[in-house]
Amino acid sequence: MLKITNTLSGKKEALIPLEPGHVKMYVCGPTVYGAIHMGNARPAVVFDAFRRYLEYCGYKVTMVQNFTDIDDKILAAANEKGIPFDEYAKLFIAEYWVDAHLLGLRAANFHPRTTRYVSEIIHLIEKLIARGHAYVVDGDVYFDVRSFPKYGELSHRRIDDMIAGARVAPDEKKRFPLDFALWKAAKPGEPSWESPWGQGRPGWHIECSAMSMSLLGESFDIHAGGNDLIFPHHENEKAQSEAVTGKPFARYWMHNGMIRFEGEKMAKSIGNVFNLREAIRQFGKDGVKLFLLSKHYRSPVELTYEALDESRRAATRVKETLKRAEEQGVNILIHFDNSWVNEMRARFKEALDDDFNTSKAIALIFELSRELNSALERGDTKRAATAYSLITREFGQVLGIFDTLHETMKIDEESSFEETLHILLEIREILRKEKRYDLADKIRESLRAIGVKLEDTPQGTRYTLDKHA
Ligand SMILES: [Zn+2]
Description:
Blueprint: E1 3-6, E2 11-14, E3 22-27, H1 38-56, E4 60-65, H2 72-81, H3 85-103, H4 118-130, E5 134-137, E6 140-143, H5 159-165, E7 180-185, E8 200-202, H6 204-216, E9 220-226, H7 230-245, E10 250-256, E11 259-261, E12 264-265, H8 276-293, E13 301-303, H9 305-327, H10 338-353, H11 358-378, H12 381-399, H13 404-407, H14 414-433, H15 437-449, E14 452-457, E15 460-465
Parallel strand pairs: 3-4, 3-9, 9-10, 11-13
Antiparallel strand pairs: 1-2, 5-6, 6-7, 7-8, 11-12, 14-15
């Protein structure tokens, strides 16, 4: 039984989706005004792996990750460069996809952008006004926090305590310090949209409510993001969504810890940026992912050169062992050591079922790698083939590390990838003839996860490659 820590209750809870067998999740994505840094990479990597694990457990998953493509920082940066804000945002969305590809992250089912949801946002705000949860002042619209008694429930704060530190900025026209903008009246020179309250643009929080509810429904299972978003972003999202629908919004809230850089939270605003592309170049995809996944997702992570380099070395050790197995041909042996497989699978599941403890799951992969090494030395090919397979075709696929096929999927190594693919298809053909459909299906699923789609026809198996899968 998979348990996750729900920020809302502060407890580990069994994950029970609203619709049996189908998990719907929303992850707050990046605001696209600059290159992706390690701080943005953590939720992307963690929740990509979490989604794969849900699928490994047999769930269907519908995942949404947005791009915030309009906000003050984007406008300021685009202005400085002298290009239209939407062109500027598009540029960094494209850059995100390059990074996602380098990290082997799968695309979510939906990647909505704020500017494409303005009419849904306006519609939500109209409903909030009609229900007495929002008010208009000179073309701005604010959420009335005092109209929603459960405000503070997610971040476990009391309204009275929050007011103490809150200030109303001189240019804001809100009635109460904690009220927040749903719609901002247009300022001269800013992009704007027509609305019942005049020209303007959406506030930040309302966009995630509009996109998540449009794509996943008024109530859905998991809302995820960095723990710096709990307050005010997620608290506000929850308040405005529940105020509109009268139903619980997300039922489970998952938050990853921050990446700290010499003791400071990594956020662009304080200038502690460690560029992700550069990290991948220096430490490799597996090094970076190992670094991000080897701590529990809720813990803070200290980002140091030494820690990244240690992850790179650990990844190299595993990869060298895998390579040796390939050279000795055990990678194409398919005789599983079944009782041992069951034990390893049980331990893998036990780790990840316990609040997605990737740290333990990775320790198990290292253990498998050591076992592979010693099995190769003592000539135990059955054990070696099993360990190899568990690392690269099963556990590695779930965590998105040591999934060696993907690593060979570089433009200059296209042919070696296709060769490997043909070998796999041949093995799958043999398995199908032997009616070992479970293994044949496993190969199909694993290939699917790295963007290779198989289609069985009377003439044989055809495949298509989707590099953005
Ligand atoms: Zn959000």
